[in-house]
């Protein structure tokens, strides 16, 4: 059954910015819609609106866009066509599509062996931070860090490692060359990031890091993990698509507003 997001009617509303990042739509002193602007650690601002009337959604969007500097972003479930259409009416366009994968943790995926001369294990904070800086610089110089999975955990300004215990690293000749981050963000753990230094790619290090993480989760009694994969990243889609039992559960669109 299809259920419309918005109900009929065009209530008379007043839009008020009630805090630095919050807006309310008011009708007869009642809140009938809310908007929020959420800054993410990568510096981008994402918008969300909760409103039952289409005109209320549109007026909240217009007010927020007028008050905030662009570019601005939002994320919608791709099947929610009405919500997508609402942001498109406001001037948002599709920036990228992300697939949400559910990945089984066991039995361990065949073929994800550790390459020779590479060891995988827990991270020491100092070398981990150095590796993180190098990888971020390499990615920023190529596709840009904004093409990597979204970082949503709060952290201090300038600190890109929230908790070293969340990371596992791959080392070669005593130097860290790759990392994986697993976060317990929802009911299932989330594989938030897999990254390998540019000169060490295409050797199976990312696959080995993933196998190690899945094996550790399996030993802890966790049956599955989730991962968000940018459709435009062929290496990531091949990595997760090649895992037996992994399946796409949903897709989300990241939309962007660039202003006039």
UniProtKB/TrEMBL annotation:
Keyword Transferase appears in the UniProt entry: yes
Record keyword Transferase present: yes
Recorded superkingdom: Bacteria
Keywords: Transferase
Pfam families given in the database record: Acetyltransf_1
The N-acetyltransferase domain, residue ranges: 118-260
GO molecular function terms noted in the UniProt entry: acyltransferase activity, transferring groups other than amino-acyl groups
Transmembrane parts of this sequence: none
Name of the protein this chain belongs to: Acetyltransferase (GNAT) family protein
Organism: Amycolatopsis australiensis
Phylogenetic classification of the source organism: Bacteria, Bacillati, Actinomycetota, Actinomycetes, Pseudonocardiales
């Amino acid at each position: 059954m299809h259920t419309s997001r918005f109900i009929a009617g065009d209530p008379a509303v007043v839009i008020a910015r009630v805090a630095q990042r919050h807006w309310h739509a008011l009708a007869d002193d009642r809140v009938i819609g809310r908007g929020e602007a959420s800054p993410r650690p990568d510096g981008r601002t994402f918008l969300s609106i909760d409103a039952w009337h289409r005109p209320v959604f549109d007026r909240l969007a217009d007010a927020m866009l007028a008050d905030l500097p662009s570019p601005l972003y939002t994320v919608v479930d791709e099947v929610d066509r009405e919500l997508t259409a609402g942001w498109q009416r406001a001037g948002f366009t599709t920036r990228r599509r992300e697939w949400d994968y559910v990945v089984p943790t066991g039995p361990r995926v065949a073929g994800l062996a550790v390459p020779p001369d590479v060891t995988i294990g827990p991270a020491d904070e100092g070398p981990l931070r150095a590796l993180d800086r190098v990888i971020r610089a390499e990615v920023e110089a190529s596709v840009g860090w904004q093409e990597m999975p979204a970082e949503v955990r709060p952290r201090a300004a300038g600190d890109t490692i929230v908790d070293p215990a969340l990371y596992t690293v791959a080392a070669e000749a005593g130097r860290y060359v790759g990392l994986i981050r697993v976060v317990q963000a929802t009911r299932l753990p989330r594989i938030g990031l897999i990254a390998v230094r540019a000169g060490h790619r295409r050797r199976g290090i990312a696959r080995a890091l993933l196998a190690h993480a899945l094996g550790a989760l399996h030993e802890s009694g966790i049956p599955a993990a989730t991962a968000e994969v940018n459709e435009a990243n062929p290496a990531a889609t091949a990595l997760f698509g090649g895992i037996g039992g992994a399946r796409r559960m949903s897709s989300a669109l990241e939309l962007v507003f660039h202003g006039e």
